[in-house]
Structure formats: C-alpha cells, structure tokens
C-alpha cells in the first residue's frame, strides 16, 4: 500500500482520547464517580484489577500533551468532557474546578493552533444518575440536554466542533446486553430502553448545541465494522444479521433516516412514543466513524439476543489483540457510508492495539513497526476510498497516548506515544514519527 496517498491540503489530521481513559485525577477538584469507577471496583471485571484513577495523568500533564500534539503537526484533537467532573451529581450545581480544567485545555489547544473537537459523552455516566436508573430512565434525555447546555454555554465561544456521543452501540451492547462493561447489565428490556433513550438524548443535544453555539459543526461518533457470519449455517447468518443491526445501524439509521432497522424496530416499538423519531432525527453536519476491523457474528444462546462474537477464517491474519487484520474493510465501510447517509465523514478513531509493552530500545526509540504497517495500510485504503468517491474529510488516530483500555486495563496499548505508567514519561513511538511525516507530506506534496 502506498505510503503517501493524495490528500488535499485542507484534509484534517488529528488524534483522539477520552476523559476516563487519560485524565486520572479521579477524586480531585470535586469530580464524583462515574459508572466506570464503580465497574472497576467490581472484582475480576478489569484485567489486573486496574482502574482510571491515575491513567495518563492528563489532568495535570495536559500542557505537555498539547506540546506533543503540536510537535506532531496535528490539526485537531478530539477529547471528551467527563460529565461527573463538571456535574458531580450529573445535574444541578456545576463544579467550577472541573469546568476550569477544560477551559485550560481548550485555551492551550487554540494557542497551539490545534482545533478542539469536543465529545460530550464517552461512556463515563455519572454514578449519581445511574442510581436513578441511568439511561434506562427516560429522564436521562433531559439530563443529557442540560449537560450539553452547560458545556455549550461555557465552551461554545471557542469550540465549534461538537460530537454528542462516542460509539453508541458499543457501550450499550457491552453495558446493557452482554454485561461486559459498565454498568454490567444483561437485560433485553433495559437494553432496548437504553438504545431509544440514548438516541433521544442525541437529538436533544443536537438541538441544544444548535441553539447555543453560533456556527456549530455537529456530528456523532459511530462504530461501524462490516458484520460477517462465522459460517454459512442459517443460524449464524441470521444471528449475524441481528448483530449487524444492533452494532452498526440501531443508532445512525434513526438519527439520519428517522427509523430503526427492521429487526430492532420490531423489538423497540413498545418504547417509542409519538413524535420520538422526529426528536431523534435532527440535522447534523458530519458522520464520525470509528473503524478497526470486521466483526464475525454467530449464534450464541448464552447471550440475551442469541448472537455473539465468532471467529474470523483461520487464514485471516490478526492483530496482536486478536482482531482481524483486514484494512480493505476500511475502504468498504467508507464507500458504503457515503452512499447510505450522504454526509461528510471524519474518521474519529482508527488504530492498532498490542499487548506488547513496546519498551524503548538501546537508542531510546520505540519501534512499533506493526502499528506503522497497519496505519499505512489503512491510510492507503482511505485514500483509495476517497479516489472512488467517499467523502472523507479528516482522520483522527486512536490514540494519542497509551491509556486505560476499559476491560483490558493498561495491558493493551494503542498509543502512538508510549506512556510509562510508573513515571508518566511520554516517548513518541515510530508510529508518531511516521504520522508526523505523513501530515507534513500531505501539506507539502512533492
């Protein structure tokens, strides 16, 4: 795959993180617990019993991290706000110290000529609201709209790029169907309510941002991966089809087409009130795509929907974390989404995870050649998709830093910058050098 596909000078290059995965300072300056703080306290739920209490200490080291971004030549940084940091009870009185942190971060980004892309929700739901039913309570729509209004009023003078929610399908499936993530529920009725209420909350947040942020550019971030049946057995084909609707289409279809995909629609109908679909399908400006690898689905009666994760074909190569290595799927998804939704696409996450420590060599360099190869292949496929008509306007690598990878704790590393968790020292990896060079060459072709 070519190392330098053609991208216009205005193409946006960035990196992404999320609050709970990098900030740390879990009990400082008025921050209250989220559902992930609670989940990490459950024995055996996170590898090695790890948590986000310190993470990458971005809360204290943000200025150094912004300097790293500037050194790479990034155009933009996608981060999330920690809801329980700015609203410890999830609603009511805001926490000024928490709000101040994002003021400092945003101002430092702008001083460094890096555009802030603010995501309102990346899974750290306030535990105080979870105690009231969380997303399964329809009142959550209003809670989220009020939280969006707080952020819009505080940061909307400087932040123009807004995402409502990150990976709707992943946190709802893992948290409310499979029981593998916070808040560790596995209940069909609860899962369906959560899907619908999160969609409604997205729509309410879009309207709130439109009303309060002049010239806002608003989108949402969806995980879209080709869904393939593990075998051609009818039961696996049908299970994969239902899995596909839940993973890929249960959120963007209602948000952008004003209807649920057919299998989900039949199940969710009891929870849909008159006018709800119009409340969900609010106009947005772009589609945020998180893409990593195809998913293989199979029948699994041990899980509540009867579908689960299958295995890719034995001849398919895999990444170090066991995911299929198939960059051609990236091109497939970009072309399909352009046709399906007719919106500009920003790739808001794409990256390579490894279980290796990736320690510095004798010269102090971190040689992550597998990550470089994967990113090169994916960027090449993105360039090919653009040449074939995909409306892709930007790319954010996941992730800027090694960080807390949810149930995988700190044993999985996705960063283009290595973090030594004992010392918090940062070392740009070879992938960071490669990425900086790609950005430089895209701006100065020839």
Q: Please, could you describe this protein's structure?
A:
- The structure is a single chain.
- The protein is α/β, with parallel strands linked by helices and 446 residues long.
- Helices cover 40% and strands 15% of the residues.
- The protein has helices at residues 19-22, 35-40, 58-72, 83-86, 96-111, 127-130, 140-155, 168-176, 188-212, 234-249, 252-257, 262-268, 276-280, 328-341, 369-387, 430-443, and strands at 12-16, 76-80, 115-121, 161-166, 217-223, 227-229, 286-290, 295-299, 307-309, 345-349, 392-398, 417-420, 425-428.
- An eight-stranded parallel β-barrel has the order 1-2-3-4-5-7-10-11, surrounded by six helices. It has a three-stranded mixed β-sheet with strand order 6-8-9.
- A hairpin with a 4-residue loop joins strand 12 and strand 13.
- Helix 7 packs parallel to helix 9, helix 14 (328-341) packs parallel to helix 15 and helix 15 runs parallel beside helix 16.
- The longest helix has 25 residues, at 188-212.
Give the low-confidence spans. none
The N- and C-terminal alpha carbons lie at a distance of 18 Å
Strand content is 5-15%
Query: Sheet with the most strands?
Result: 8 strands, parallel, barrel
Sketch the topology as an H/E string, one letter per element.
Answer: EHHHEHHEHHEHHEEHHHHEEEHEHEEEH
């Amino acid at each position: 795959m070519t190392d330098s596909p053609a991208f216009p000078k205005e193409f946006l290059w960035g990196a992404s993180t999320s609050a709970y995965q990098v900030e740390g300072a879990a009990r400082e300056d008025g921050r209250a617990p989220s559902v992930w703080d609670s989940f990490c306290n459950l024995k055996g739920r996170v590898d090695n019993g790890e948590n986000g209490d310190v993470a990458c200490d971005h809360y204290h080291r943000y200025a150094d991290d912004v300097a790293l971004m500037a050194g790479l030549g990034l155009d933009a940084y996608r981060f999330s706000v920690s809801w329980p940091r700015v609203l410890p009870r999830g609603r009511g009185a805001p926490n000024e110290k928490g709000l101040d942190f994002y003021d400092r971060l945003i101002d430092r980004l702008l001083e460094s000529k890096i555009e802030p892309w603010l995501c309102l929700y990346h899974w750290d739901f306030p535990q105080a609201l979870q105690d009231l039913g969380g997303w399964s309570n329809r009142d959550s729509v209003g809670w989220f709209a009020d939280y969006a209004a707080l952020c819009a009023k505080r940061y909307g003078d400087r932040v123009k790029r807004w995402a409502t929610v990150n990976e709707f399908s992943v946190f709802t499936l893992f948290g409310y169907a499979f029981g593998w993530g916070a808040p560790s529920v596995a209940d069909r009725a609860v899962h369906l309510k959560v899907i619908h209420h999160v969609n409604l909350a997205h729509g309410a947040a879009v309207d709130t941002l439109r009303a309060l942020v002049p010239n806002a550019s608003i989108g949402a971030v969806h995980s879209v991966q080709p869904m393939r049946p593990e075998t051609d057995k009818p039961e696996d084909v049908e299970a994969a089809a239902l899995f596909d609707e839940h993973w890929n289409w249960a959120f963007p279809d209602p948000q952008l087409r004003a209807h649920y995909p057919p299998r989900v629609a039949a199940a969710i109908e009891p929870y849909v009130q008159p006018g709800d679909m119009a409340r969900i399908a609010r106009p947005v400006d772009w589609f945020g795509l998180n893409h990593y690898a195809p998913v293989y689905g199979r029948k699994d009666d041990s899980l509540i929907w009867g579908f689960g994760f299958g295995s890719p074909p034995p001849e398919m190569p895999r990444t170090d974390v066991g995911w299929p290595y198939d960059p051609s799927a990236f091109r497939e998804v970009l072309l399909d989404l352009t046709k399906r939704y007719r919106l500009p696409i920003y790739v808001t996450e794409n990256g390579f995870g490894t279980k290796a420590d990736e320690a510095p060599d004798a010269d102090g360099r971190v040689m992550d050649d597998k990550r470089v190869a994967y990113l090169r292949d994916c960027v090449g496929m993105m360039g090919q998709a653009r040449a074939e008509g995909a409306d892709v306007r930007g790319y954010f690598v996941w992730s800027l830093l090694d960080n807390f990878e949810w149930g995988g704790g700190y044993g999985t590393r996705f960063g283009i910058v290595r973090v030594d968790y004992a010392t918090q020292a940062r070392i740009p990896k070879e992938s960071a050098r490669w990425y900086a060079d790609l950005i430089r060459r895209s701006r100065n072709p020839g």
